User: What shape does this take?
Amino acid sequence: MRRSIERHWYAYAMVAPVVVVLAVLVLYPLAQGVWFTLTDINESTIANPVLDRPATYSFVGLRNYLNVLSGDPSFGSFWSTLLRTIIWTGSCVVLTYGVGLGLALLLNRPMRARALYRVLLILPWAVPVFISAFAWKFMFNSQFGVINQVLGAFGLGQPVWLGQTDLALVAVVIVNVWVGVPFMMLALLGGLQSIPADLYEAAEVDGATPWQRFRDITLPGLRSVSSTVVLLGIIWTFNMFPVIYLVTGPAANPNTRILVTYAFERFFSGASRDYAVASTYGVLILSVLLVFAAFYRRALRRQEAFA
Amino acid sequence: MTIESLPIQVQAARVSLRGKRSMGRSVALHATLTVASLIAVFPVFWVLVTSFKPDARAVAPTIRLFDESSLANYRDVLSGQQGDFLAWVLNSVEIALLTTLIAVFLSATTGYAVSRFRFPGSRKLLLSFLIAQMFPFAVLIVPLFNVLLSLGLQGTGIGLVLVYCTTSVPFCTYMLKGYFDTIPTDIDESGRVDGLSPFGVFWRLVLPLARPGLAVTAFYAFLTAWGEVAFASAFLSASDESKTLAVGLQVFVQQNRVEWGHLAAASILVSIPAVAVFYLVQRFLVTGLAAGAVKG
Assistant: This one.
């Protein structure tokens, strides 16, 4: 008994700093953020110690939520932006996972220059995202960008990639997949290496085809890694700000607007910085993700019960 | 690395069982990987090529590898002609290193406690780290701005370090917890038998064994801080010498004209430390990430 109390004491001492940091910098701001959504706070009503100005914002009830959820274009057309965010997240995660898994399978076998391929393939992860975004913005330029010059050389036309069309969304998806593949590839490669080789040998002895081996050994063996990285991928992509902001910005492009970039627009680049609407978007994003994660976990548990 | 070489030996055994790959399949394998590697490297290569061209030639309508190429862009950027580049570098280094130190220290102790001790609330704590990943900065950006204002830290690097820790600490804890799980608890117990305190066990036995996991964590924290755009754009004051690189480089991208040559040169200079850090830790990446993701 005394031993267990002693153990807990050490555990709490080791956990305490993180709990304090998270409480001060996540929980408290979160509570305040939720409160802000019920007010009309903006740049002129927030308290500003520098100017020695007290806060003058006031409680407005659910007005912000009603405005946003009505789908009014002057509040960011919530529903169509949500739909675009889901399309963006879905296509990014499916493509990133697919390409990452394919490359991991190719890399997970002995061959010449394996280490070299691995180093080259994870380069996109090593480069800071804002640099990658500039590089792709440069390459996507419709007049002098290298992509259109190559397309033009093959007579395939020279589309305006980053204009006010849905092509801009395709372009940012390409960039985000390029940025995201190395993480998926490495995580899945690690998962592949943890699958015991004797499973494959036994399957081969039993005469299983490569496809059967992939379906019945590789995929189940990857399930715990996959469920984690797919969930993280969905959360990160849903909230992915820099790729869209830097590739299609600085002026906001309505064709690549997702929930997060619109929240930033309201916070940062609007005429009057509307903190209340930005926070409302933040709370709505968080709610969508929480509901999704709850369903995701439940679906996983059910799948495990059947397996 | 013993952990890394083990699967390779296992695979060698597997292949000998299956026999040699046919010539055609081998060509297809290498062709696919070569194309993928080219796609991965090309944007960086293209920035490198562009960084030597004058701004006017960078946007020339015909592609050339070399076009009046020189080191002039690098000289301009480093001499501060286009904004105080060296100050941005110093700010970014300072912020990224501080974030890394704090994040690794905090997440190592917490990850170890959650991995080893079944104390009341440990499961809830882990779950809250996962949920913390879901917080869009949009919900925190205004209140954090408010907190920093009232602490007098708005526009300072320390304020940003605190903000970055909120995003990197939960994820790093999650990864390190998974890594500590793979270290046998026998080691802890034998340490205790030899008279070490729990802190001693953690510090002297487990931490050295967890170096691959720590490397991944440090790498993650460093790169998060080094490349963060949203908070840095919103929180740092407009004065040139307080900017980080991610904010400063936007100077080259104005609405109407972009100085592509200079931007490319600055980008290459920024990428060098990130890529260097990356290659120092990349051999640990597969083992560290796998442990975190599998067991997490």
Residues 2-36 of chain A form the longest helix (35 residues). The domain at 37-306 of chain A is CATH 1.10.3720.10 (MetI-like fold). Chain A touches chain B through 110 residues (CB under 8 Å).
